[in-house]
């Protein structure tokens, strides 16, 4: 299986907002104003988690043999920032809506598999990843 290159580069000048470029050439402009449409860095964190969980839930449904009964998966992620200490999200609020002819027990199993086994983003957030930082001029 061929692996997709991953990673992103943010570029910002003395003024303005960051421009993001993925290793595959995708681009995204960051907006931080309260009334500006678009994504800010925290939105991107929530977006990464919601997308990963949605795709992981679909994969879990496939593994469980219920994909043909699934119509949609919607995952909404928001969060609560910590009041003290370093700036961070203290609590992630995750809401799954799994549409289709699937019973509650199977829905629960799909979500557990997505969150605890399959989704790289949720597993990374729940872990304690190390940072390797390089600095240059």
TrEMBL record:
This is Uncharacterized OsmC-like protein. Gene3D superfamilies: 3.30.300.20. It holds the Pfam family OsmC. InterPro entries: KH_dom-like_a/b, OsmC/Ohr_fam, OsmC/Ohrsf.
């Amino acid at each position: 299986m061929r692996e997709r290159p991953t990673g992103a580069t943010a570029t910002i000048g003395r003024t303005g907002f960051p421009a993001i470029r993925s290793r595959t050439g995708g681009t995204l402009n960051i907006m931080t104003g309260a009334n500006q449409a678009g994504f800010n860095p925290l939105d991107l964190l929530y977006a990464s988690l919601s997308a990963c969980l949605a795709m992981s839930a679909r994969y879990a449904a496939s593994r469980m043999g219920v994909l043909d009964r699934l119509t949609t998966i919607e995952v909404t992620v928001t969060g609560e920032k910590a009041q003290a200490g370093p700036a961070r999200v203290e609590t992630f609020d995750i809401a799954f809506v799994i549409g289709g002819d699937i019973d509650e027990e199977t829905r629960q199993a799909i979500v557990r598999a997505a969150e605890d086994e399959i989704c790289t983003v949720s597993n990374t957030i729940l872990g304690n990843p190390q940072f390797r930082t390089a600095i240059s001029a």
